[in-house]
Write a structure and sequence with these properties.
Cyclophilin; 146 residues; globular; alpha+beta; ten-stranded antiparallel sheet
Amino acid sequence: MNRLLSFILPVLILTSCNNKTNSPETPIDKEINMTLSIDNQELDVYWEDNDSVNAIKGILPLTINMHQYGGFEQTGSIGQSIVRNDSQINVVPGDIVLYNGNAISVFYNNSSWSYTRLGHINLDNSELNVLLNKSSVTFVIKGEEK
């Protein structure tokens, strides 16, 4: 009986360790190349290497109908809460952040608030203003495994 337990117990432990499921709170570590388009314009984006970006990879593709807020950002709900690590930060045009764990904001002007950094769009301020300074935009993130 003891021999049987000494064999089965490690197998059970290893099996339970490998049964990890991905939820919005469980970041994934897959190598996924994420692309962003706003109103069908594909953009060059630097993505942060953090748990929130990894969680977003687990819910792709993601389409967000965003709306203008405060004259400095576009914001929209991702439809669920994901892991976050908010801190008071100053954002600049092009910054992409997670707000309250359930919304994404992208900036075309400066601001400061408690956010989790997700990435940065590599466009100059005038191009960002043309792209984002309107009543609404469609924000699409897609991914493919590398």
